[in-house]
Design brief:
Number of helices: 10
Distance between the termini: 32 Å
Number of strands: 20
Structural class: alpha+beta
Low-confidence stretches: 1-26
Radius of gyration: 23 Å
Order of helices and strands: EEHEEEEEEHHHHHHHHHEEEEEEEEEEEE
Strand content: 15-25%
């Protein structure tokens, strides 16, 4: 759901009052351009007309500047926090609302929230707006939000076989007939080989693909691009993205989802109208193309991998794995072995970069940059926070002064809510955030 893209800063600045009655603040959102994007989204929603999923994706759309928390929307909220401004609405989000590319409920409205500035590339921008539009209604479609760890995708075997699968999918998207079928078969073999090595891989990957994968497929499918161009676009994304991503554990479905989805569009039109949250992309495509797989020999796997430059990929991943082990040792010393502060999470919202994470087996994952809100208050951790596997606790290095307000530590700042305080933890030097409220 939370989607982070690297986009250039916008130059235009305008001045607009906030609904709180504060002095005029600089707003780094070009309102005429935002209005143009609202109209663009409306055209895409109308063009779909609910045909893809049996329900329209149209909804309240909000563009937000992360630094100032100033927002421009396409409609009013239900509590009067936003004010009309030239055909749109504007205001400032409270600190308790996490700002990210996501869907969120605020001021009585279920919003499609997108960070400003939006991508300047037309296809990327339109795909982003439709991606987040799907997230707003996914639960009603029978696809609940999920967040499995998929830590195996940070290991050597996880990354190696995943990238071979992607490369085969990219070839399949560019080919037709027997060549497409052969590439799909290769992708399915690589997918199966990876999943034989990790017990929970099949289920965890499926959950994320039925969440972010379907969202990204929807974004690309409704981006206004013709089918052949859509396939080339996703193939290009596969070619370009993997080297830029330090980890695939939360971001892999952004590539796998649209690749399998578009191949299914060709093999089994209207497949998405029959799809269920328990489905698996690979199984759906294998059935649609009537592909039979047998257990591959080592020689067969090697031959298939070499079609996609597997030897070079293996070498680069082996080198990366050495550095990964060193990084894990450093993070364990910082977030597990050393003195730490543990914060219980209730009614939690988090904004983070899904491409900047490091799983720590048995402890969860370190989100390298994150902002978390909840009943405890607000935690800003630009240098990382360890999230427990069940998302019930956040851990950062021990505070410098537990009585200070706000409380700070190495790479983080904590604003405690009323009724909360820190108390010594079970280990010497550890601390815990606790509430005196019942």
């Amino acid at each position: 759901m939370i989607r982070v893209r690297i986009v250039p800063s916008i130059v235009a600045l305008i001045v607009m009052a906030t609904s709180s009655g504060a002095d005029d603040l600089p707003r780094p959102i070009d309102v005429p351009l935002a209005t143009q994007y609202f109209q663009e989204a409306a055209r895409l929603w109308k063009a779909d007309g609910g045909k893809l999923w049996g329900r329209s994706l149209e909804g309240p759309l909000m563009f937000v500047d992360r630094a100032t928390r100033l927002a421009v929307t396409n409609r009013a909220d239900s509590e009067g926090h936003l004010h009309a401004e030239g055909g749109v609405f504007a205001g400032k989000l409270p600190d308790t609302v996490s700002v990210a590319n996501t869907s969120t409920k605020w001021a009585g409205v279920d919003w499609i929230m997108i960070l400003w500035p939006l991508p300047t590339n037309d296809t990327e921008r339109r795909a982003l707006m439709m991606h987040e539009s799907w997230h707003r209604i996914q639960k009603d479609l029978g696809f609940p939000s999920t967040g499995p760890g998929n830590g195996h995708l940070d290991t050597f075997d996880g990354r190696y076989w995943l990238q071979l699968e992607w490369r085969a999918l990219a070839v399949a998207l560019r080919q037709r007939g027997d060549q497409r079928r052969q590439a799909v078969e290769d992708a399915l073999v690589f997918r199966a080989e990876r999943r034989t090595k990790f017990k929970e891989a099949a289920n965890d990957e499926r959950l994320m693909e039925m969440h972010e994968g379907l969202a990204e497929y929807t974004g690309v499918r409704l981006s206004g691009v013709e089918p052949a161009a859509r396939e080339l676009y996703v193939a290009g994304e596969i070619d370009r993205r993997p080297p830029e991503l330090p980890t695939f554990v939360r971001s892999f479905a952004y590539l796998s989802g649209p690749a399998y989805g578009l191949l299914l569009d060709d093999a089994a039109p209207d497949w998405q109208r029959k799809a269920k949250s328990t489905d698996d992309f690979g199984a759906l495509l294998q059935t649609a193309l009537a592909i039979k797989l047998s257990d591959p020999t080592a020689a067969d796997l090697l031959a298939r991998s070499r079609r996609y430059d597997g030897d070079k990929l293996r070498q680069s991943e082996e080198e990366r794995d050495v550095k990964r082990r060193e990084r894990i040792a450093e993070l364990k010393a910082r977030f597990v072995d050393g003195p730490v502060l543990t914060i219980p999470l209730e009614k939690m919202q988090i904004s983070f970069n899904p491409s900047a994470m490091q799983p720590l087996e048995g402890h969860g994952a370190v989100y390298m940059t994150a902002r978390i809100t909840g009943t405890f208050g607000i935690l800003t951790a630009p240098q990382g926070v360890l999230m427990s596997p069940d998302f019930k606790h956040a851990t950062v290095p021990a505070p410098k002064d537990h009585e200070a307000r706000p409380i700070t530590g190495d790479g983080w700042t904590l604003q405690l809510a009323d009724g909360w305080r820190l108390k010594p933890g079970q280990r010497k030097g550890d601390w815990e955030a606790v509430t005196e409220k019942k």
